[in-house]
Amino acid sequence: MAKPATASRPASKVVPLHKGTTLEMVRLACPDNNQAERISASFGLPLLDSDGIRATHLQLIAETASALSEGLKERAMQIHLQRIVGAYVGSAHGAGQFYSRAVTEARDATAKAACDARDEDVDGPVGFDGPAQRKREFAADMGLQAHALRMAAEGAVAAYEQVVGERWKPFERPADPAAPTLDRKAAELQIAAFG
User: Fold this and answer.
1) Counting Cβ atoms within 10 Å, is residue 183 exposed (0-12), middle (13-18) or buried (19+)?
2) CA–CA separation, 28 vs 9, rounded Å?
3) For 97, which DSSP code?
4) In 3-state terms, what secondary structure has residue 174?
5) Please, which domain of life does this record's source organism belong to (predicted)?
6) What's 119's DSSP letter?
7) Could you give the 3-state DSSP secondary structure of residue 17?
């Protein structure tokens, strides 16, 4: 018995996506409440009102949505808030990555300063901070900034869920593999300059 002929379908094309930054990525990169409190206590920095930052941003986004509700339809509101929340999440993630680099530099400098055989890493004169101490203090400042932005992002994400009624997720746009990247375009222009 012969199989009936089926119309051949064109092969579907798999389009890679540019992955967006998620709140989970922010939580991995930025200090949580306990770590922010330890940083504040260790370096004599002010304690942040983490819950207050989160609540303020939740309220800010919710009030913004309320003010726009007359002028925006449901889908337009969702798109607008998706972009706003994405900006908060992206900013917090960038701060978290910067904080991670600052901590790595502080650890490296502290390890070098602990080695008695190195003259270039010794602390400065009495009363002045050495380079390792300055790097540790800078990392502490960056940690509190990253934590504050994390709390703002968490508040914005919570507001999105409250207003839209579904969990926020980053926008993932399809990557166009045929389109030349900016780096490739720049390289072509630079090579063309040589004649």
Assistant:
1) exposed
2) 44
3) H
4) strand
5) Bacteria
6) S
7) strand
